[in-house]
Amino acid sequence: MTKAGPTPYPIRCFRCLRLLLHLVWIGIGTFIFYPLIGEKRRAFLKQRWSHQILKILSVHLETLPTDAPHGSLIVANHISWLDIFAVYALRPVAFISKAEIRQWPFFGWLAKQNDTVFLRRGSRGHARIVNAEIDALLNTGMDVAIFPEGTTTDGTHMLGFHAALLQPAIETGRPVLPLAISYHDADGRVSLAPSFAGDTTLAQCFSAILAKRSLTVLLIPAPVIDSTKLHRRELAKVAHTAIAIKLGFLSSNNPPEKLPGPQSG
């Protein structure tokens, strides 16, 4: 049996048109409905809209159940901008994002309306303010998601975690949910198409995703971690190891003595 080739260009164009119309609808819905409805309804819309984005791009979401309670700090590896919609589709969360995104046309406004907390990198004073915002969200029972690698990879390895980003879980005593993210082709092999790492531009990444007839994103939760008994460096190490094991980068019988940096703080 011959392998299916790339997506025909008419289908790619159709996907682009559908995605554009869907984003317009999300913008209208956010502007009109968000001020009129409660948090639960907004969470429902956020989850539904994200499922639709994945469907339009022929990205199938597969996951496993988790007993993590609401108000958990979700810690995940980072591969692509698609990660955001995959996690939204799993659980409506508030994301921690770099401050530059807030200045992006449309998407910066949309992120702000969906509870995104913007972090100005390199500023310890601002980090304390952001941690206070995360504390408040966790204490209201909202899940907060972070990518503690601080950047993306191509999915074939992991970078070290910035331990300081896990401090709010310790301060609030909220549990930490490690979440492993990976992308796969139709034959089950790891796909590099969604990778938004290195010198890859957003246009190149988007084009590579469109070229795939279908993709599967796996969201595999690890056991919840009790944050009250660990220093943030220890918490970063435990979370990193849990995700690396789920991704098959480490054996559960032989975790590393030391994980790659950064873990400062």
TrEMBL record:
GO terms for biological process: phosphatidic acid biosynthetic process. One of its GO terms (molecular function) is 1-acylglycerol-3-phosphate O-acyltransferase activity. The chain crosses the membrane at residues 20-38. Residues 72-184 form the Phospholipid/glycerol acyltransferase domain. It holds the Pfam family Acyltransferase. Keywords: Acyltransferase, Lipid biosynthesis, Lipid metabolism, Membrane, Transferase, Transmembrane, Transmembrane helix. Coiled coil: none annotated. Pathway: Lipid metabolism. CDD domains: LPLAT_AGPAT-like (cd07989). PANTHER family: 1-ACYL-SN-GLYCEROL-3-PHOSPHATE ACYLTRANSFERASE, 1-ACYL-SN-GLYCEROL-3-PHOSPHATE ACYLTRANSFERASE-RELATED. This is 1-acyl-sn-glycerol-3-phosphate acyltransferase.
